Amino acid sequence: DHRLHQPSSQSAGVHRGNRGLAAVPGGSAGVQSVHARLHGEAAGKVRGEVMRAFRTLLAALGRGDPAMKMVLVVRTDLGLKKGKIASQCAHAAVMCCMRAATEGGRDTRRQLDSWLAQGQPKIVLRVDGSEALHLLTQRATAAGVIAELVRDAGRTQVASGTETVLGLGPERSEVIDSLVGDLKLKVGGFISAWN
């Protein structure tokens, strides 16, 4: 069959009896045309992103890059709820990535690319207070490792400016391990590690 397949009104997100079609040039056919165009543009963007990620992965594998990881260190003394911990860890991960992408040199960006190609491994660890976060931040900075400390905005569970999570990396696993090898995994109803 050489005819072009036309999506049905249901697959195009058009429901019979929808009065909004009168506002779309061409009615149902116009909606289908817009849907097809948007679908094509989105598919093209997704294909581009997939190919870019695939090329990054191949480059990392070809270089024989070492294992990379990011560590998120959570304060347990604050008694944060699971959702709050998750959001604070997300803040730390984004802050670390943005710093690696924008402020880091060529080696830092290469480490970021390698970490992304390896599936962005992250480990969540715990400490009992802000002093431990400060000490770890100093050690990481001295070792040349990205260290981003999250200070809460104070709109929910803790006061504004409270330090909640420290993000470290992305960095070579052995370097991260030398900094945090004595810390324990964050457990007790929360994800202990992401890979």
From TrEMBL:
It catalyses: an N-acyl-L-alpha-aminoacyl-tRNA + H2O = an N-acyl-L-amino acid + a tRNA + H(+). GO terms for molecular function: peptidyl-tRNA hydrolase activity. CDD domains: PTH2. It comes from the Eukaryota. NCBIfam families: arch_pth2, PRK04322.1. Residues 1-12 have a biased composition (Polar residues). Belongs to the PTH2 family. Its EC number is 3.1.1.29. Residues 1-27 are annotated as: Disordered. PANTHER family: AMINOACYL-TRNA HYDROLASE, PEPTIDYL-TRNA HYDROLASE 2. This is peptidyl-tRNA hydrolase. Gene3D superfamilies: Bit1. It is an enzyme of class 3 (hydrolase). GO terms for cellular component: cytosol. Keywords: Hydrolase. The keyword Hydrolase applies.
